[in-house]
Amino acid sequence: MILGINDGHNSSISLFNDGKTKNNRIEYAISEERITRIKNIRGFPKNSINAILNYYETEITDKKNNFDLITVGGKFRKNNRLNKLKEFSDNQNAPLLYFDHHLCHTSLYKLNYDFKKGKEYMVITLDGAGDGLSSTVSIAKNNKIDTIAQSDNINSIGDIYASFTELLGFKPMEDEGKVMGLAGYQMDSEHNETYEKILSNVENKIIGYNTKTKTFKNYLGVIGNQSTKELEKLFKLQGICNFKNMDLNNKVIISKIIQRKLEETVKLMVENFVKETGISDIVLSGGVAQNVKLNMEISDMDCVNSVYVPPFPSDEGLSIGSCILASSIHNKSDIGLQNTYLGNDIENSKIDNNNIYENNINNINNNNNISINNLSKFKITNLEENEIPDVIANLLMNNKIICVCRGRMEFGPRALGNRSIIALPTRENAQKINRLLNRYEHMPYAPTILWEYASEYVKNPFYSPHMAFLFKTKDNYDNKSNINGVIHQDGTTRPQMLKKEYNTTYYEIIRSLGDNFSSNSQSCYSVLNTSFNLHGEPIVCSLDDAVHSFVGDALLLGNLLIEKL
């Protein structure tokens, strides 16, 4: 057994079975934030390690000698972090291996659901910085990775995007999705003219790509907070001055500028390396690969055959990447990843036997202004597994907002049906959930769509099970359709495309909904799916988290259905 650790940004752990007793596969993975309830927490993931020991209590009974090897994503760290890792390694009597930050991101190409032995992939990593670099380009085949280009942390396109995030009043390294969402807003002709004018004045003063050196070039010359200050000076010259109380139109203009620069710069890099190497199957990893608009733009390039983005491309994935690299030392190519449900489980037996719901029901979140005093406010039903699809579909058909916390928790940034809030994908429901969660209007919601119906909703679909790509919606699904709550202003949507084998019960819920629901002669094999958490908090992990964060009309807790009356 290999234990992978990321003790940096969004710290995490993973448990990897290296094939001595079972198939070569990821057994368990969790981010520290899910337990501490502090988003993107850094540092040694002691709570996650305790969680993994508790999860396998029937198999792992001693606090020592549990792991054959401990791997760490990233080589450079301060002494206090080194000391904690060394102490833990000594206590476990397990050797400790460190792997390069970007190499860990790169190794995730092996998780590709279309991975083929003997095939070459071009793997591009893009992030803020890690081990002195902000980007790499590698050719990967089987267990061999050859890095052919890299950019240092000064010339970081990820850091520039984070500085724009801060400039707009958001939290850098966390709220970049809000910037991308704003960039999709449509503007009137007057503001569009202003945007084009400012863009022409600043686009060559931010960041670019040098085709000769094969590196990004940061024209600001600084990073981090200093970069944000330089951007303030740059935009003040364009007449945008009030950054603390910036109006929406100026926020949209600035967001469009950095999103356009990101897309143009990375596409230029991709085009040049496809031409140079002849490799057109692309893998994108690192934090910037969470920009689903960029991913769509690259997949639409004529020179690109396919694009894969791992389900956890940001730094939480480093723990898994380090495990993959350690396994590769033994020439093992196959990595078993059937789905991303790798975290803690909600066990029905514990809900029933300990009557946990009776002890916690009065702690349900009160965001929806419903007074909660006793159990008479709720209808509580224990469902059989085969009853769940029709019961939940019926609630959805009656326009109910449903929180779901069941089975093993997802690893990565996306909720994919086990820690989700789901509803009919209408604008009315999207607005209702925005009010419940105190969520920004410009953060678009995503749908889950049954894979076999994807072509009815989006143009040129390809299998995308982890919400990693935007797709342009079909013309017949415009703002009058029954999925207008998951279509952004620019006509795109970010679907989880769901096959039955990925999550059977969740699939059957949507299947039952589609078979029994129709509006304007349109069936609806889709639901709005957003992560189950209060705004600003991590996705729920435990039963207690779910009860605390319960908003809407019903909570499916394991097989226990709690409905507000």
Automatic annotation (TrEMBL):
Q: Which PANTHER family does the annotation name? A: NODULATION PROTEIN U
Q: Which residues cross the membrane?
A: none
Task: Answer yes or no on keyword Membrane.
Answer: no
User: What name does the UniProt record give this protein?
Assistant: Carbamoyltransferase
Question: Has UniProt tagged this entry with the keyword Transferase?
Answer: yes
Q: Source taxonomy lineage?
A: Archaea, Methanobacteriati, Methanobacteriota, Methanomada group, Methanococci
Per UniProt, residues of the Carbamoyltransferase C-terminal domain are 393-564
* CDD domains registered for this protein in UniProt: ASKHA_NBD_MJ1051-like_N
UniProt cross-references to Pfam families, sorted A to Z: Carbam_trans_C (PF16861), Carbam_trans_N (PF02543)
- Supply the alphabetized keyword list: Transferase
Q: What Gene Ontology molecular function terms does this protein carry? A: transferase activity
Give start and end of each Carbamoyltransferase domain. 71-323
The organism encoding this protein is Methanococcus voltae (strain ATCC BAA-1334 / A3)
Could you say which protein family the record assigns here?
Belongs to the NodU/CmcH family.
Cite the Gene3D superfamilies for this sequence: 3.30.420.40, Carbamoyltransferase, C-terminal domain (3.90.870.20)
Query: InterPro entries, per this entry?
Result: ATPase_NBD, Carbam_trans_C, Carbam_trans_C_sf, Carbtransf_dom, NodU/CmcH_Carbamoyltrnsfr
